[in-house]
Specification:
The complex is a heterodimer of chains A (123) and B (294). Chain A has 123 residues and is α/β, with parallel strands linked by helices. Helix content of chain A is 46%, strand content 19%. A five-stranded parallel β-sheet of chain A has the order 2-1-3-4-5, sandwiched between helices. Chain B has two domains: 124 residues, no CATH class; 147 residues, 3-Layer(aba) Sandwich (Chemotaxis protein chec). In chain B, strands 1, 2, 3, 4, 5, 6 and 7 form a seven-stranded antiparallel β-sheet that branches. Classes of the chains: A alpha/beta (123), B alpha+beta (294).
Chain lengths: 123, 294
């Protein structure tokens, strides 16, 4: 699988955050994006699009990112979910990991870190 | 103040396994005695000396730091100095992991040193002229607030100044902080922070200022006040408040929840009760920050 093949779901209520993440990943050749504006939509899009990786904000309208993670993990226990949040506190980190997230990145995210996560999926 | 929670740092830098981080996060920490690890971190003890004193403390029931003095590793003044320091939460985390045998005291010393040097936000970012203005603002805070409000603003504002420098630029001057009743916005984002009480936070400015603010924050070029500019204000506020929450957790073990930030353009942000309005002047316009504890 090449970087351009990877399907990426970006779930964040901020239109700016979604664009910045897309632009960061487009720099390394990613081209296959799906977007969601809230937790409920992120679960629906996961089910309909089967992305290879999900970048999921925590604080969103409707169900939050942690609950969305739990529901996505029920759909696919092998789902690769990376939580991306402004609030990197103990309780959020704990909730994210217990829900099944593979990684947790605090905003503002480091572009190289995000890019390396996607590149590793190609290995 | 730190830009990343220590537990997250351990995880994101592959210092500790995810399962152990989870165990650490679930553990109930209670403030108490100075962690023995601190003596190693400050360079007074080697691993072997640490183990010697710890084992003796367990066997004899004597306090660890009394034994450190008895062995001549530290004198009473040195012990007094490090035990008098306020204990950040990450030190307790460090001690927990050492007690579990996950890392040695000297390994943990390096981890903590890297964390502190890599993620500490220091007031050294302030240029000299700004230092005076910031000091004046913080002094004014103590004049117009009391009790919990004072502590809150004295925690919130220095971090805010640091974040303005990080994300927008250091070409600003803090103008004033004043008590304010009722606030009507122009281009505005607001967000509630909750714990036992609620703190309404808001950032507000005129349209042209908002366009430039958003341009700087996102490193994108904006020419009109559109949904991206609104999102930029929301994201700045969210990021700053997120950092505030991390620091309150790290330094005071205090849990805060953030509501979803929302645009509140040309709206009544608060119509009663006393809030606090901080104004800063950038080369491109005045940016206002409104805090309303209630």
């Amino acid at each position: 699988m090449t970087v351009s093949d990877i399907k990426i779901l970006i779930a964040d209520d901020s239109i700016l955050a979604r664009k910045l993440l897309k632009d960061t990943l487009a720099e390394i050749g990613c081209a296959n994006f799906v977007e969601a504006k809230n937790g409920t939509e992120s679960v629906e899009k996961y089910e309909s699009e089967s992305p290879d990786v999900v970048f999921l904000d925590i604080v969103m309208p409707g169900i939050n990112g942690v609950e969305a993670t739990r529901r996505i993990m029920e759909i696919n226990p092998d789902a690769f979910i990376v939580m991306v949040s402004s609030v990197g506190t103990k309780s959020f980190l704990q909730d994210a990991l217990e829900a099944g997230a593979k990684d947790f990145l605090q905003k503002p995210f480091n572009a190289e870190t995000i890019q390396s996560i996607v590149k590793k999926l190609c290995d | 103040m730190y830009s990343e929670f220590f537990g997250h740092y351990l995880l994101s830098h592959d210092k500790i396994d995810k399962d152990i981080v989870l165990e650490l996060l679930k553990h109930e920490f209670h403030p108490g005695q100075t962690p023995p690890f601190k003596a190693v971190y400050h360079g007074y003890l080697s691993n072997e000396e640490y183990v010697t004193c710890l084992n003796e403390a367990i066997d004899s029931g004597k306090p660890f730091y009394d034994l450190v003095i008895e062995h001549g590793y530290m004198d009473a003044e040195q012990v007094s100095e490090i035990t008098a320091e306020k204990e950040p939460v990450y030190m307790q985390f460090a001690q927990y992991l050492i007690d579990k045998g996950t890392v040695s005291p000297t390994e943990m010393s390096q981890i903590v040193a890297d964390y502190v040097s890599g993620f500490e936000l220091v007031d050294l970012d302030f240029i000299d002229e700004m230092n005076d203005a910031v000091d004046r603002i913080l002094h004014d805070v103590t004049m117009i607030t009391d009790g919990q409000d004072t502590m809150l603003l004295l925690d919130y504002y220095p971090l805010l100044f640091n974040d303005l420098i990080r994300y927008i630029g250091d070409d600003f001057t803090p103008l004033s902080v004043q008590a304010f009743t009722g606030y009507v916005s122009k281009i505005c984002a607001k967000q509630d922070i909750t714990s036992t009480n609620t703190l309404l936070t808001a950032i507000d400015m005129d349209e042209n200022t908002a366009i430039e603010f958003a341009t700087r924050f996102s490193s994108m070029e904006f020419t009109e006040c559109d949904e991206y500019v609104d999102a930029s204000l929301c994201d700045f506020l969210n990021q700053h408040n997120g950092l505030f929450a991390v620091n309150m957790a790290n330094e005071h073990d205090y849990h805060l929840s953030l509501a979803i930030p929302e645009s509140a353009n040309y709206d009544i942000v608060s119509d009663s009760g006393t809030g606090f309005l901080l104004s800063v002047s950038y080369s491109f316009g005045v940016v206002n920050f409104f805090l309303y504890p209630h």
